Amino acid sequence: MNNDIKTDLNDDKFSPYRLKINHIDDQIISLLYERQEIAEEVGKIKKQMGIGIFDSAREEEVFKRLTSKYNNNLSRQAIRHIFSEIVSAARAVQQQINVAYLGPEATFSHQASIYYFGYSTVFRAAETIEDVFRLVEKGVCQQGVIPIENSYEGSVNISMDLLYKYHLKICAEILLRIRHHLICKSNTISDITKVCSHPMGIAQCRSWLKSNMQGIATENVESTSKAAKIAAEESGTAAIGSRLASQTYSLNMLAENIEDQPDNVTRFLIIGKEDAKKPTGKDKTSILFLLNHRPGALYRVLKPLNDMGINMTRIESRPMKIRNWEYLFYADLEGHEKDEKMNSALNEMSINCAILKRLGSYPEGSMIWD
After folding, report:
1. Helix, strand, coil shares of the chain as percentages rounded to 5?
2. pTM of the predicted protein model
């Protein structure tokens, strides 16, 4: 039997299923057009009422409802990925959103931004974390994405300092699993003479490098994106970077998931001029506070949380910098500040603080993006 006949027989087997899929696709696209028309009308109402386009609480509500319908053929994460793009397109038809992130292109901050906001968004790379704050404060971008902590490396101190300095709100969070890959122009590892990456990327893959790249030199550069760019330009140089970096710079992934700790997660915050006004039932509230210099000051400030049964998931101190030997405390609390108990606790805490700044209430990150 020749190849042409085999192909014809295969086509006959697949044809009924392809016709069904085509019919379903036609229905999906028709419903997406209808959804976009409704989203456009909602956008007009928001504009009349002076309401911002991005609503993290409402979007999280949509995602929670839809991901609860998962099954073996369509996972929660797949549903979230699909609908993040649908929601992104809906936002775009209402008004184009500009989002600032810590650049350059193809960093993990960029990847987190794309996962959360979708491709129907204008992304702007900022040179520093403070530039992200500046772009949002000046209104050049409506939202910004900043790293706040890593499960292995700890807090990003500059981000905490800037949350005090700028009058912006936290409106959402993103949890991104950090996956490192060996990426290169070459098709084989044997061609590699040097591996470059951000120092943290090299450190997080040290065991794999020791086992698989003995004798190969490593070089520290300012970012994983810079490393990918070098690998695209230099023959024999590989980079440790993200899947997005390999796609952006057209590099081959010679080895995947080479990080020593597979559960390495970075938490990013989305900042804007407003927080999530509507509670979702699973929220966080972040605060900064400065203690008065009195014995038992920290105990008195935190006591209302205990009295109201509010769980504090994180607390950390930072030097205030403008005053020697004084410290700001950054804390994350479970719940929304519109909850009666949370609001009462925060009001009572403020009585015992020299400063208490409410950084915002926002939906708790419901899944880790992989």
Report:
1. 45, 25, 30
2. 0.90
